[in-house]
Design a protein that fits this description.
It is a single chain. The C terminus is likely disordered. It contains 22 helices and 14 strands. A hairpin with a 5-residue loop joins strand 13 and strand 14. The protein is an alpha+beta fold and about 575 residues long. Helices cover about 45% and strands about 15% of the residues.
Length: about 575
């Protein structure tokens, strides 16, 4: 089992965190982000996240999805999915393909065509290289984009103190789950080896040493690794044409590294845009796995001692694949420099705490175990279901994680007859995911139809209660009753998005004529939880055939928990 000292664990956390920061900072400028509204012609590069909106859906049926400052895209989603899969040890690639990709379809924020097509195939139980339709197999074999390179940082770090071939086989085993062209796989191998160099480095590298070492060790990382132990059917299918394409892509990578080396040696005389253009970073080739890795390596070499400059250059180049290149360059630099250079960005990026905790999990718990089958789930049906559910309702994702709804908003949509819904969920391991749904407007008799982007939902209302001990209230509602608790601090909490509990400077009196009511799908689970933590008898009652439980919270407020009717139907009651 691989082991790491605390300093390297800290740097690994910084790498994943910086990748998310680069993604979130660069995403609004990304040319293919489908940004809604007018895009700034020349945004000023600055280390600050922004709120923005994007269209998600088809040309004529789309949701105007708000993206809050610091939220990340599919790049980070798939990087985190790769990290989670590593906890299955030698079966990590199977976990990524069979668990993570089908689940990702439900909450993907963007995504390249190759990855989306592969995820659909895996969710249907088919391997993309074995698709029955020739056109699908051809699309897979021609997929050479950066969708692999952008997600393999966790693999490179996990195997950084083992022979290079160990990381290479794991990277390619993960990569072929979605991409079948050598450009995607060699680009990922190049980026992974660059991460290995920086992660192993204990002192500052000489200027240009990163690219020099990549060139010197070219045969160590650019050879086609053996993946027969993981995907034997893919390995058996390797043809002479594929080997020729691999050799050609390897030569392309070597040539590109030579250009990077020459540009770096020119030092200040090099102009970033000209170098990136020479590497193919602009235009149709910009999304290639090889080209994206070359751009990230160039920026991480040019600005090896100024990671913030590398981040800003890559995130605000309006013609570059900004979210991916910024993510890759920032992640690469952070595995050497650590977290401090990111400043507040590293603290406020979406799921910062979850990302750091996940780094511990995959670095320290890489144990081979069986991959359970994914739970089947229809994407359209899932979106419809969550759009009509209540705050606090819990669902099980195909990867077997549970996720609870913590927010739901009506948002803009194309067409006067449509309304969009954005649903925010929090998984059991504390990752934030978002789901959009496009539905028909429902106008009841006597109601006024709203127009434009005005929300169809009534204003959000919260009721505030005075309490003696905020921590006790958080335990009661969050741990005991299993309700979502947010905005938690010493002064107060928000429960279920509508009930505020604030610390009182005077003794709260409670209120015998006030009852807090909740309806839940997990009635039996809550009853067992209350009984196991109660010193007095706990009994359920029925009203009109609906089971109820009435308890008091730590401040004397009555709480009435009612079983959801759908849950009753499921249990046969």
């Amino acid at each position: 089992m691989t082991s790491f000292d605390p300093a390297h664990v800290s740097r690994a956390k910084a790498g994943l965190l910086a990748a998310a920061v680069g993604d979130a900072l660069g995403w609004p400028q990304e040319p293919r982000a489908q940004r809604a509204g007018r895009k700034p012609a020349n945004p000023v590069p600055r280390p600050a996240f922004q709120d923005w909106e994007r269209w998600t859906g088809s040309r004529f049926e789309a949701v105007r999805e708000p993206i809050k400052s610091g939220e990340y895209s599919d790049d980070t989603q798939l990087l985190l999915a790769t990290a989670r899969s590593l906890r299955f040890g030698e079966n990590s690639s199977h976990a990524f393909a069979q668990l993570e990709l089908p689940a990702w379809l439900l909450y993907a924020r963007g995504g390249g065509g190759a990855t989306l097509r592969a995820a659909v195939a895996w969710s249907a139980g088919s391997r993309p290289w074995n698709e029955t339709e020739a056109v699908k197999r051809k699309s897979y074999s021609q997929a050479g984009g950066n969708g692999v390179a952008m997600r393999i940082l966790p693999i490179a770090l996990l195997f950084s103190n083992q022979p290079p071939g160990r990381a290479a086989s794991s990277i390619v085993s993960n990569g072929i789950c979605t991409h079948g062209h050598p450009r995607a796989l060699i680009g990922a191998l190049m980026y992974g080896y660059a991460c290995r160099i920086y992660f192993q480095c204990e002192a500052s590298l000489a200027y240009g040493e990163l690219v020099d070492q990549l060139l010197h060790d070219f045969t160590d990382w650019a050879a086609l690794p053996d993946v027969s132990a993981t995907w034997p059917d893919w390995a058996i299918g390797i043809s002479d044409d594929f080997r020729e394409a691999w050799s050609s892509a390897a030569s392309e990578a070597m040539d590109g590294l030579g250009r990077v080396s020459r540009a770096v040696k020119r030092g200040a005389a090099s102009i970033d845009r000209r170098v990136i253009e020479d590497l193919g970073g602009y235009g149709d080739a910009g999304g290639s796995g090889i080209v994206s890795s070359l751009c990230a390596v160039y920026l991480a070499t040019r600005y090896a001692q100024d990671p913030m400059r590398a981040l800003l250059v890559s995130a605000f180049d309006k013609d570059l694949d900004t979210d991916t290149i910024a993510s890759m360059a920032a992640g690469l630099l952070a595995v050497f420099h650590g977290k401090q250079w990111m400043g507040e960005l590293g603290n406020v990026v979406q799921d910062a705490g979850y990302i750091e905790g996940l780094s511990d999990a995959y670095l320290l718990a890489h144990v081979t175990r069986e991959v359970p089958p994914a739970l089947s789930c229809n994407v359209a049906e899932f979106r419809r279901l969550v759009s009509s559910a209540m705050i606090g309702d819990t669902f099980t994702l195909p990867d077997r994680r549970t996720a609870s709804i913590v927010a739901s908003y009506n948002v803009g949509a194309k067409g006067e007859k449509h309304v969009g819904t954005l649903i925010g969920l929090r998984t059991e391991d504390n990752q934030g995911i978002f789901v959009t749904h496009l539905g028909r407007k429902q106008v009841r008799s006597g109601e006024m139809q709203t127009h434009g982007n005005t929300s169809l939902l009534p204003p959000r209302v919260a009721i505030r209660f005075a309490v003696r001990d905020v921590a006790q209230s958080a335990w009661f509602y969050g741990e005991l009753l299993g309700l979502p608790v947010s905005r938690k601090n010493e002064q107060g909490i928000l429960v279920n998005g509508c009930l505020a509990f604030s610390r009182s400077t005077t003794e709260p009196e409670g209120a015998r004529d006030v009852t807090i009511c909740f309806e839940t799908h997990q009635f039996e689970q809550i009853v067992r939880s209350v009984k196991s933590n109660s010193k007095t008898s706990v009994n359920t009652t029925q009203r009109l055939g609906i089971r109820m439980l009435r308890v008091q919270d730590p401040d004397g407020y009555f709480v009435e928990i009612t079983e959801h009717r759908a849950a009753m139907a499921d249990t046969g009651n």
